[in-house]
Amino acid sequence: MQTADDAQDTTPHEVDAPGRAMTKGEGDREVILSVKDLTVAFGSNVVLDALNLDIYRGEILGFVGPSGTGKSVLMRTVLRLLPRRAGKIEILGAEYDAVSDEERVELDTRLGVLFQHGALFSSLTVKENIQVPMREYLDLPQEIMDDLARLKIELVGLAPEAADKFPSELSGGMIKRAALARALALDPDLVFLDEPTSGLDPIGAAEFDELIARLRDTLGLTVYMVTHDLDSLFSVCDRIAVLGNKKVMVEGTIEDMLASDDDWVQSYFRGKRARSIVRDDGQKDLHHHDPNAPRRDETGRQGNPQSGRAR
Predict the structure, then answer these.
(1) Domain carrying residue 151
(2) How many domains are contained in the chain?
(3) In a domain, 12, yes or no
(4) What is the pTM of this model?
(5) Rounded CA gap, 129 and 167, in Å?
(6) Rounded distance, CA 73 to CA 163, Å?
């Protein structure tokens, strides 16, 4: 185990846990997730090829790219739901392949995931869904788990009576919030969101964006968000990474995206249907700052406001 003196020798790193050195990135920001030279393939089809990406503590990173390029594949590979052919993944200063089973379980408890469409267990109530990670990783009395589940339900803005409802009784927005409450069940450091506003009406999507930003600020979360939603990218993301040609081809702020000379990036962020712009003074602005205005996906098409609203 490292001593305090040993920890001083890890510059430019800092110790996050016994024996664990946290990498520092540009500007001495703490790297909480580091992907190095990652290659993922299905048979002869190489989806990701020597991809590199760093995510810094406390930021909301928006991950975008053309459909079918492997955005969700990268997320699932980081979560060890898909195998990789090559490369290294470090989370919270630890490389999964180099730690013990006990340490790997500890790392898993520091991650939260909101899968696309929520992925709630249909036979379980909202409360029971939230308690799944608790039952998997913790040894707690039922009464305490019930109290914790109610706390998470309140945290994501659901009404207390939602606790005993089944997914089939929830609106689209309520499903997203319940799934987010489950992702927060173990108080994670890093939360993965896969298309969190997909299928929500404009008001529900905007409210969900605000919820994510508020939770990041309140709980100190780091958020990895796969999204096609231009509004989310402009309103809550601190930094954006663009996947293309099997690699991260552009990463930076909204201003960096607007300044990029890549054709796809220009079409995405400066296309005729992109609702957001940057004013001459460098500040973000909206053409039609109307919460009822249809949100846009990566193609510029208006979202379909048929799903239920988050309340």
Answers:
(1) 125-181
(2) 1
(3) no
(4) 0.79
(5) 9
(6) 32
150 part of a folded domain: yes
Q: What is the mean pLDDT of each run of 10 residues along the chain (311 residues)?
A: 41 39 63 94 93 95 87 90 92 86 88 89 94 92 94 92 93 90 94 87 86 92 90 88 91 89 85 52 42 41 36 33
Residue 154 located in a structural domain: yes
Let me know if residue 17 belongs to a domain: no
Residues 6+ apart with CB under 8 A from 279: 285
